[in-house]
Amino acid sequence: MIIDNQKYPYPARLRHHTNPACYIPANELKELPENYPPLIDSINLKNIFINGKEPNVLDVGCGKADFLLNYAEQFPNDNILGIEVRESIAKWAQNIISGEAISNAAVIWYSVINGLNFIPNNSIDKIFYLFPDPWTKRKQIKRRAFIPETLEIYWNLLKQGGKLYLATDVDEVDEYHKKVLKKFGKFNVQEDINDDQWNFPITNKEKFCRREMILFNRIIAEKL
Ligand SMILES: C[S@@+](CC[C@H](N)C(=O)[O-])C[C@H]1O[C@@H](n2cnc3c(N)ncnc32)[C@H](O)[C@@H]1O
Q1: Alpha-carbon distances, residue 41 vs 90, 118, 127, 154 (angstroms)
Q2: Within a domain: residue 102?
Q3: Which of 61, 112, 127, 185 is the most buried (most CB within 10 A)?
């Protein structure tokens, strides 16, 4: 779908990143900053989709949501839930979903680093984690949302045969993803995925990479 930016103008002062503390698990902070995403223990997932169904697809760090909105259109039988740590963009995307009555998509303002206890285990077919913030500097590494602990959570949420899809344009991050997946085991990992094997909508970041001729790597990890 083409987003009508007159009807849904981008939030003013949309920043690439939010307060660094928002990327840290709540239980590791002495005090939560004012703009820390809400902590969610339980939620009636059926209430957040217009069609009243639960999600079977997750888009972690959905950002400006081109992927999520087009995925919802391309796969009308799936329910895709976007999880985004930046409040303004999460609310902007959810506003489009409500305004355009997209029944099989929803976005919540939340940091995945605080766990996903509100989603039942063995309920998800696909988890997308596309072009995460690279966080390659030593002092930034603790802001990464893909760590062994979240991989374990993803594995639990996925149905058997469910798939985790990863993409990044940063070689160091790609190597890191492969290392974490290898150490974890319990996934059948396919690397160097090409367009024919992917067949999903393009994300905002992927569009940028293609335009600037920046190479990116994709992985598909299937829950064994
Ligand atoms: C580089 S952007 C990519 C966005 C989108 N997936 C794409 O490919 O265009 C990374 C996104 O992940 C979000 N993000 C980073 N850490 C997160 C976390 N802990 N929980 C949820 N979203 C997070 C960022 O706010 C940002 O929108």
Answers
A1: 19, 6, 20, 16
A2: no
A3: 127
Q: Give percent of the chain with pLDDT exceeding 70.
A: 100
Q: Is residue 118 part of a domain?
A: no
Q: Which of 28, 62, 211 best tests ligand 1's pocket when mutated (most atoms within 8 Å of CB)?
A: 62
Q: Is the C-beta atom of 37 inside 6 A of ligand 1?
A: no
- Whether 99 maps to a domain, the answer reads no
Average pLDDT, the chain: 94
What is the pLDDT, as a whole number, of residue 138?
83
CA of 156 to the centre of ligand 1 (A): 21
Ligand 1: which of 70, 91, 114, 131 to mutate, judged by most atoms within 8 Å of the beta carbon?
A: 131
Q: Is 204 close to ligand 1, i.e. is its CB under 6 Å away?
A: yes
Q: How confident is the model at residue 83 (pLDDT cuts 50, 70, 90)?
A: very high
Quote the domain boundaries for residue 190.
123-224
71 lines ligand 1 (CB under 6 A): no
pLDDT at 13: 73
Total domains present in the chain: 1
CB 61 within 8 A of CB 204: no
CA distances to 64, 73, 74, 81, 153 from 91, in Å: 10, 20, 22, 13, 25
